[in-house]
Automatic annotation (TrEMBL):
Gene3D superfamilies: Winged helix-like DNA-binding domain superfamily/Winged helix DNA-binding domain (1.10.10.10). It comes from Halosimplex pelagicum. It comes from the Archaea. This is Helix-turn-helix transcriptional regulator.
């Protein structure tokens, strides 16, 4: 990490340097996808996809949503929050700005409800 660089900025840069993390962000920008669908589209194993999803969630670059199958089972899907990443290098300093999409009220309510029902 460069002197004076924010640890969060360094983490975002590292994630964006990872081919699977970038692929997840691109694929989930089109539509919300399950981890298995992301594994197929990104040509990666599910454990690899789950590891990257956790890293992306740590930096609030992806959001998790609950979906209901017609048979009544629940599963998670993921959708990118990233709209734009800007890197500025000026006067010997490097800064990163991540513009994120807003999470809609229904998604916030779902996450709140899930938090109340989990053991």
């Amino acid at each position: 990490m460069a002197a004076g660089q924010d640890p969060e900025e360094s983490g975002v840069i590292s994630l964006l340097d990872d081919e699977y993390a970038r692929a997840i962000l691109v694929e989930s920008s089109r539509e919300a996808l399950s981890a298995s669908a992301l594994a197929e589209r990104c040509d990666a194993s599910e454990p690899t996809i789950y590891r990257r999803i956790e890293q992306l969630r740590e930096y609030d670059l992806i959001v998790e949503q609950q979906q209901l199958d017609p048979d009544g089972h629940h599963y998670k899907t993921y959708r990118t929050r990233v709209e734009r990443v800007t890197v500025e290098i000026e006067d010997g300093e490097c800064s990163i700005d991540v513009s994120r999409r807003e999470v809609d009220a229904a998604d916030r309510f779902t996450r709140l409800f899930e938090g109340l029902t989990e053991p």
